[in-house]
Amino acid sequence: MTASHDLLVIANRLPVSAEEHADGTTAWNRSPGGLVSALEPVLREHDAVWIGWSGRFAPDPYSTEDLGRELEPLPDDVGPCALSEVELGRDELEGFYEGFSNSTIWPLYHDAIATPVYHRHHWEPYVAVNRRFARRAAELAAEGATVWVHDYQLQLVPQMLREMRPDLRIGFFLHIPFPPEELFLQLPWRKQIIEGLLGSDLVGFHTPGGAANFLRITGRLLGLDFDETGVDVPDSSRASGVRRVTVGAFPISIDTREYDAMARTAEIHDRAIEIREKLGNPRWVILGVDRLDYTKGIDVRLKAFTELLEGGTIEPGEAVFVQIATPSRENVEDYQRLRDEIELMVGRALGDHGLIGAPPIQYLHQPFDRETLVSFYLAADVMLVTPYRDGMNLVCKEYVASRTDGTGALVLSEFAGAAVELTDAFLVNPYDAEGVKQALVDAMRDDPADLSMRMKAMREHLFEHDVARWAASFLDALEESEQNR
Ligand code: ADQ
User: Fold this and answer.
1) CA-proximal residue: ligand 1, atom 1 (nearest)
2) Which ipTM score applies to this complex?
3) Which residues of the chain have pLDDT under 50?
4) What domain of life does the UniProt record list for this protein's source (predicted)?
5) Is the distance from the beta carbon of residue 391 to the nearest atom of ligand 1 less than 6 Å?
6) Which pLDDT does position 61 carry in this prediction?
7) Which of 127, 156, 324, 379 has the fewest C-beta atoms lying within 10 Å of its C-beta?
8) Whether residue 286 sits in one domain with residue 238
């Protein structure tokens, strides 16, 4: 590959993943996802390349010169555009991904719900891997190309890349929350992270709150001048002496029309009816869908539902709570502990309140395809989305987009980015156990006319603010930030 690409997407993962077979062959599966479908039209318009890791390991210790074995090259036709694989060794992944990304940044940026760990031996591979991504982009970018860097695993890439290629236009988007300074300042490498992000022309967050936190920290930590739209970074190569970094909120969304269309098919309707029948046709089906992550507040919901059963507000057999929890980050200790805690809670509740043939809770620790998820969304009278903190949360948007007939109720945490937009949901503070119980009861018992008004308003919002609009607004803002150069 040559330095010919005018649009580069850099994300921790490629939009395809490798499935290595015992006979040495590799199958490549396209990973469907919001980001891929949002970017697909833009990628097609450009000579684009996507830089990321494929999920397969290079031998440790990683060295570009001496791979030990050649990784089979990626086939040309598997992705939505050209793909460039960044190699990672197994040990490196532990430090960079499971370590610094998921045991330091992830908990710190989610209000320190789990205690972040600060290990120097995690920071070093984080820097090394970020540099590898930046170098690859520097090699592949055409003069003046646009680069869009994604998420918390790659916060140093913008600055590294700017040093290598000052001609590039660099945008960074953070998919998780950005914390207030009281928390962020714990980070021993706080200055390096902020300087890394400030290598961008545009830094985007899901919410105005995240953007404001970031701006305040640039002032506090680096003494830079900022206002609500950006920050001035000293730059002696410019006549003005400063380079403007634009900062803003770009709430991500889903392909609303696609979910709406899926939910209208006869097949998915039939599957939703079948799900309800298998659950015993209760009056209420209540649903939770998440990655099994301690930020998502799965325990909050289980507790609320169980206490309502205990107190007799919900009669056994009247309602079934289905919790779908996708296995996630199973090598990180906090996630192993969480799984045990949730399964203990489910087991206890079933022991105390189960009826023969009619368990009040169904717990599925499995991934499902999108069609199946939409069938569950259609089958559910109430969707419970109760994270302690969430950058956005797409599940609640998928639920709303799937409720084509305007029925259904969404209970949504105030601490999900989506709460800024979906103000017609039953908003709750996930730390307030009584408040969550009350919101669930309100959602179950609300008058159908009120429910339908709320759902209609949320659906209208999502049809107008879909993922294509998100991608376009970020790329437009990036282009405009260039005009300020
Ligand atoms: P996540 O933390 O992964 O994303 P979320 O936004 O809810 O959270 O996205 C999860 C996605 O996985 C959804 O599209 C959902 O349908 C899918 N999913 C969940 N359970 C599944 C299952 N059992 N089987 C198959 N698919 C399942 C991070 C941030 C969020 C932010 C997104 C996008 O933490 O806050 O909204 O990135 O920026």
Assistant:
1) 393
2) 0.98
3) 64-69
4) Bacteria
5) yes
6) 60
7) 127
8) no
Amino acid at 60: D
Query: Do 142 and 287 fall into the same domain?
Result: no
Query: Is residue 224 domain-shared with residue 170, that is, in the same domain?
Result: yes
Claim to verify: residue 51 and residue 78 sit in the same structural domain: yes
Are 335 and 282 found together in one domain? yes
218 and 131 co-located in one domain: yes
Q: 171 lies in which domain range?
A: 5-252+469-483
Distance 143 CA to ligand 1 centre (A): 35
Contact assessment for residue 396 and residue 296, using Cβ atoms and an 8 Å cutoff: no
Kindly state whether residues 270 and 410 are assigned to the same domain.
yes
Does any ligand 1 atom lie closer than 6 A to the CB of residue 175?
yes
Tell how far the Cα of 251 is from the centroid of ligand 1, in angstroms: 14
- CA-proximal residue: ligand 1, atom 3 (nearest): 291
Compute the distance from residue 80 Cα to the ligand 1 centre, in Å. Answer: 21
Residue 394 beta carbon below 6 angstroms from any ligand 1 atom: yes
Residue in the block written with tokens 């079948």: 274
Among residues 366, 373, 396, the alpha carbon closest in space to that of 268 is found at 373
The residue type found at 374 is V
CA separation for the pair 394, 391 (Å, rounded): 9
Q: What is the pLDDT of residue 65?
A: 45
Helix (H), strand (E) at residue 227: strand 225-227
DSSP summary character for residue 416: B
Residues in the chain: 485
User: Are 380 and 362 a contacting pair, CB within 8 Å?
Assistant: no
Cα–Cα distance measured from residue 160 to residue 155, given in angstroms and rounded to the nearest whole number: 10
Write down the pLDDT at residue 68: 43
Tell me, in angstroms, the distance from the centre of ligand 1 to residue 385's CA: 12
- Say if ligand 1 is within 6 A of residue 87 CB: no
Q: For residues 415 and 430, what is the distance between their CA atoms, to the nearest angstrom?
A: 8
Ligand 1 pocket member 393 (CB < 6 A):
yes
Q: How many CB atoms lie within 10 A of CB 241?
A: 10
